[in-house]
Amino acid sequence: MGIRPELGGWxxxxxxxxxxxxxxxxxxxxxxxxxxGSAGMILFGVxxxxxxxxxxxxHRLGLTISAAVSIAEPARVQDRSKLLTLDEFDPAAxxxxxxxxxxxxxxxxxxxxxxxARGMTLAPALIDPTAVTARSLRVGDGSLINAGCVVxxxxxxxxxxxxxxxxxxxxxxxxxxxxxxxxxxxxxxxxHVGTGAMIGAGATVLPNLRVGAGAxxxxxxxxxxxxxxxxxxxxxxxxxxxxxxxxxxLDDPDGE
Length: 256
Ligand SMILES: CC(C)(COP(=O)(O)OP(=O)(O)OC[C@H]1O[C@@H](n2cnc3c(N)ncnc32)[C@H](O)[C@@H]1OP(=O)(O)O)[C@@H](O)C(=O)NCCC(=O)NCCS
Known about the structure:
β1 (40-44), α2 (51-60) and β2 form a beta-alpha-beta unit. The strands form 4 sheets. An 8-stranded mixed sheet has the order 5-8-11-14-17-20-22-23, with helices on one face. A 6-stranded parallel sheet has the order 6-9-12-15-18-21, with no helix packed on it. It has 3 helices and 23 strands. The protein is 12% helix and 22% strand. Bound molecules: coenzyme A.
């Protein structure tokens, strides 16, 4: 069965694996508003259909979008009034932080790294006001917890993480950087998902399991065993498929 993750996982406060890396800050909506002031937010990359969800959460949080930067056609942002091409966009003209939307972990990471390479600051995490999150939640910058999610106590989410609509994360969940959780997925308590892994829509991961870095869990699967790094697993019970995750439909530029 491989390793059994200890409760927590990023640093000393969460229990095991102490000192692995700097913990993300405890989330508080006041921090988000304090950092943003009355200013807005830059949407950097608007090709993903998911960008409309980021717009909705930004709206529900009472924030505004100051620029929507199109890096590759088509632009799928709802409000096209702030749309700029990458050539038209001058980061020096904006003081606002940015977020990047894409369901595939590798695409979101690429966008975030491109934005940071242009000198922009990644925004604090966006947590939809309809999500229910524990007071103890730690979550890194550039992450989104979308509408209707529930995040259990003592959970730690990294940077650039996406938790899509109505997903449920149990207590002591650890999601490393750039993880994507599909809509309606359920992670039971004390699961640890490695960097850049994807859990498909409606999948279930049973308690105390580790999903390896870069792994892909197909939609609707029921995961009963640890998943190795870079594996694609599917079905109930989930079994390993020969296909490499990075050659799946997730790698389609318009893929979801
Ligand atoms: C896992 C996934 C990425 C694979 O996509 P793909 O590249 O089209 O892969 P394939 O269709 O070639 O499937 C590979 C294998 O996995 C199986 N498989 C794929 N998805 C499956 C699923 N949901 N349940 C059971 N088996 C599945 C296929 O039958 C195939 O099995 P085989 O090799 O035994 O024939 C995709 O099926 C998936 O589940 N995506 C979820 C995306 C999602 O949740 N998005 C949310 C956006 S908000």
